């Protein structure tokens, strides 16, 4: 069988082809699956997609008409998929329930350290042989307080690093992680976490209940010199409110690997185009803001695990088996719809 895979990054392609070698051929495309590209999938029973695919009802309908029976998403999040539409059309949907939490946790810390110690600004200066220290002063993190929103596998990995720095640990989640509590984490309400944290890192999924979790009120409750890091989902932060907060001279630094309107921007080369997203353009003008292109997960270890899980999902589908990664299977409604 030949499988078609959308949104395949250059570094990902050889890993994906190798993983399916001896089983199936893979047609790898760098374009993302959406309304415009869905017709390309006609004739393919199995379609693999990245997290930036637009799998709305219209796209899934197009896939089903073209003969697609299984969608294998190469990510953990699936808020981009209309599971109800997939169930109605009899399309099986699988995802990757977990992969290396260290990839994202370590990158989140990279963002935190970069904005705290002004590393990007310093590197840009020294390339021009400007070796002044003006404007480069950061702070010791040892002894300061970190607030971790979401203490699942990634949040726990982030917390362990924070513990190594010797920080005071505050956490917020719907359920306490006993392993974080063993490290000395205190679970508190959002008001206290925002008010007391010097560094805040987001590790919760994007749900209706968490959309714009960091809104104008949350930002107002934070310390003026707090550092905010988001390596989870862009929609967790109200970017317009964040811009207004930065314009007021508040927050010591912001590190974002995700952006709520990143679809159509991230993973593309837009360097020769005019960016019409005024909010993102304004955000990028602040010297204490670092934006990266949704790359926190992008390590050999994590991508290898993602691809390995995708292969298993496809093999289980073809063998008529079901595993914990499946969100929709024939004759079964998605969990949220039951």
TrEMBL record:
The gene is ldhA. Its EC number is 1.1.1.28. The keyword Oxidoreductase applies. Residues 110-296 form the D-isomer specific 2-hydroxyacid dehydrogenase NAD-binding domain. Belongs to the D-isomer specific 2-hydroxyacid dehydrogenase family. PROSITE patterns: D_2_HYDROXYACID_DH_1, D_2_HYDROXYACID_DH_3. SUPFAM superfamilies: Formate/glycerate dehydrogenase catalytic domain-like (SSF52283), NAD(P)-binding Rossmann-fold domains (SSF51735). This is D-lactate dehydrogenase. Residues 9-325 form the D-isomer specific 2-hydroxyacid dehydrogenase catalytic domain. It comes from Streptomyces rimosus subsp. rimosus. One of its GO terms (molecular function) is D-lactate dehydrogenase (NAD+) activity. Keywords: NAD, Oxidoreductase. Pfam families: 2-Hacid_dh, 2-Hacid_dh_C.
């Amino acid at each position: 069988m030949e499988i078609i895979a959308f949104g395949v990054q250059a570094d990902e392609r050889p890993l994906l082809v190798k993983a399916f070698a001896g089983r199936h051929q893979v047609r790898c495309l760098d374009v993302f699956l959406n309304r415009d590209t869905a017709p390309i999938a006609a004739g393919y029973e199995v379609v693999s997609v990245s997290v930036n695919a637009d799998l709305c009802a219209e796209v899934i309908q197009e896939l089903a008409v073209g003969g697609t029976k299984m969608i294998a998403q190469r990510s953990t999040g699936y808020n981009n998929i209309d599971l109800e539409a997939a169930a109605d059309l009899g399309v099986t949907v699988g995802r990757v329930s977990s992969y290396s939490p260290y990839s994202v946790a370590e990158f989140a810390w990279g963002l935190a350290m970069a904005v705290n110690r002004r590393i990007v600004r310093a590197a840009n200066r020294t390339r021009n042989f400007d070796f002044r220290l003006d404007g480069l002063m950061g702070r010791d993190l040892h002894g300061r307080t970190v607030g971790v929103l979401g203490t699942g596998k990634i949040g726990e990995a982030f917390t362990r690093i924070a513990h190594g720095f010797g920080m005071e640990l505050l956490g917020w989640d719907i359920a306490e992680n006993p392993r974080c509590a063993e490290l000395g984490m205190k679970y508190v309400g959002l008001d206290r976490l925002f008010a007391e944290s010097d560094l805040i890192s987001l590790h919760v999924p994007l749900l209706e209940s968490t959309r714009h979790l960091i809104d104008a009120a949350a930002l107002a409750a934070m310390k003026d010199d707090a550092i905010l890091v988001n390596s989870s989902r862009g929609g967790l932060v109200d970017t317009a409110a964040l811009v207004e907060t930065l314009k007021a001279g508040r927050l010591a630094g912001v590190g974002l690997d995700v952006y709520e309107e990143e679809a159509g921007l991230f993973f593309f080369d837009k360097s020769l185009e005019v960016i019409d997203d005024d909010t993102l353009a304004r955000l990028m003008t602040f010297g204490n803001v670092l934006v990266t292109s949704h790359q926190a997960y992008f390590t050999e270890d994590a991508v290898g695990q993602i691809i390995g899980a995708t292969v298993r999902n496809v093999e289980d589908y073809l063998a008529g088996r079901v595993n914990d990664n499946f969100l929709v299977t024939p004759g079964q409604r998605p969990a949220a719809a039951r």
